[in-house]
Every structure is written in C-alpha cells, then in structure tokens.
Amino acid sequence: MLNLIESGKYSSRTQVLRDSVELQAWREARLKAFEDSFAEGVAEEAISEGESVEDVFLPLIAKYQALADSKK
C-alpha cells in the first residue's frame, strides 16, 4: 500500500482502500453477470431438450452459492 502512496498514484491509505473496495464490487458484479448469463444459456438449452427449469437451475444455484460462500 505504501508503494502506491509513495508513487503518487494515491494520496492516502483511505483512497487505496476505497479503490480496492470499488474494484472488488466491480469484480463481483461482473462475475454475477457472467453467472446469470451462463445460467440463462444453460436453462435455454435444457428447456429445448425438455428438461425442467428446476432441474437445471437448482444445481447451478447451489454450485455458485457455494463458490460465493467460499470467497467470503
């Protein structure tokens, strides 16, 4: 963190931490958007093959919830 301040990129520790929190939120939003898009594509494919939405989404929801929980 000190290197970032000493280099002049940031003027305080608060700015470094704020930017870090914003970056983490951005990453999480991008991951959620990807997961939603992926799940939608899988569901559409499954529906076209005659699988129920529940059979497709419940395992996906459990998988990505476990992934999200492990990152906390």
What are the key terms here?
single chain, 72 residues, 3 helices, mainly alpha
Question: What does this 3D model show about the protein?
Answer:
- This protein is mostly helical and 72 residues long.
- The chain has one domain (2-70).
- Helices cover 82% and strands 0% of the residues.
- The protein is built from three helices and no strands.
- The chain has helices at 2-6, 13-48, 53-70.
- Helix 2 packs antiparallel against helix 3.
Summarize the structure.
The chain has 72 residues and is mainly α.
Distance between the termini: 22 Å
Largest sheet: none
Rg (C-alpha, Å): 19 Å
- Low-confidence parts, pLDDT < 50 over ≥5 residues? none
Mean pLDDT: 86
Q: Count the helices. How many?
A: 3
How many runs of DSSP E, i.e. beta strands? 0
Class by alpha and beta content = mainly alpha
Helix-strand topology string: HHH
The dominant shape is elongated
Helix content: over 70%
The amount of beta strand, in percent, is under 5%
Total count of domains? 1
What is the strand and helix layout of this fold?
Layout: H1 2-6, H2 13-48, H3 53-70
